[in-house]
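S., here's the first fold you wanted:
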Amino acid sequence: MPPSRRSFLAGSAGLVALAVDAAYAPRRAQGASATGAADHAAPAPNTDRAFVAARQPFVVRSTDGVMLAGEAQGDSQAPEILFIHGLRQSRLSWEKQFADPALAGFRLVGFDLRGHGDSDKPASLDAYRDADRWADEVAAVIAATGLRRPVLVGWSLGGYVAGAHLCKYGGARIAGTNLVDAVIRLSPDLLTKEAGDFTRTTTSHDLAERTAATADFLAACFHRQPTQVEMQRMLVVNGMTARAVNEGFVKTTTLDLEPVFKAYAGPILLTHGSHDRLVHVAMSELITAGHANSRLSLFDESGHSPFYEEPARYGQELAAFTTAAHRA
């Protein structure tokens, strides 16, 4: 691969790493069993308290033996949503959604991608460069949790992972797709100059340089900045991620998943922060330009993380989209 191309891909991986963890509060409750359906609890009526429901942890192995850790919540017969986080993050990214009363009537599933959180962290770069491996772990989670026809939510790298799954397994069993500031094509014209500036620093092998750049990079992910405590937790999760994830992903030969989404027959909701400093809205507009059953929703008070920065609106839109997708 030419050095210029490899440098750009490294920057793209750094861009995808802008996905940030939303582990902003302690978990309210967790299920104790790793098998069966999670209990479903209705939200407290007309209160300001976050929705509280039992979480059920699970562990599943992907086709290449990588162990994946996740959690499920809600009635197993309810409409389903599978959340896929971004690079250097974890399932904790979706804490606000798991606690959202607007999403209380749905089956919610989140998991840690390979190399992240509590999932296995292979040292081989090959574990991350092959798009099929990302696709296989989504399929493994769907099977392990008994999802029948979920909506896939893909944030940043998660959008790439969702596209990889559609590419390999097709969309017949996917009710809809919500792409959140997603990277679906590794192309320099769809990334901002600021994102390009992080190309070297966020993938540096110099620990001090990479540490400082990671903090700056996370700050650039928000229009509404997190609190100091929230940012500290996000940085901890970033530090748990295997270095091989970045180094392997930049070597992928699957550079463009736009055709996959355009060929997908189901509905697509594109969620994008108007103040995203790293991904041009043109990335989302690629899909709406060529997919008849798609809609772009711009979040005027958000940067790269609208589900975190404007969670109430995001939850309402995701609930409406998922309900309609399951009725189709």
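And the second, which I think is the more interesting of the pair:
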Amino acid sequence: MNQLIQQVEQWSKDKNLHEGNSDRQALKFYEEAGEVAAALSRGNTEALKDGIGDTVVTLIILAQQHGMTLEECLQYAYDEIKGRKGKTINGTFIKETDL
């Protein structure tokens, strides 16, 4: 995984995206997330795999543009959720404070 992330970061540098406009990168993320939703609604596994991968690529670059790493952001999020209490209702986790 680390090697793949490094390859994406290098690709981003090669394309000069690492210093690009992060607002545009966020829009690219939303576009790719929409492709994930479309693949799910159509039951298209190949398109889903591509969409998830493309979404992760956009997040790697967005983090890079802000001097962060994907691992750092994921660790931050995990530290936020690891002790979270709540219930899963209809396949969605609801935080205890929102119940």
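Why I say that: The chain has one domain: 2-98. The chain has four helices and two strands.

Talk tomorrow,
H.
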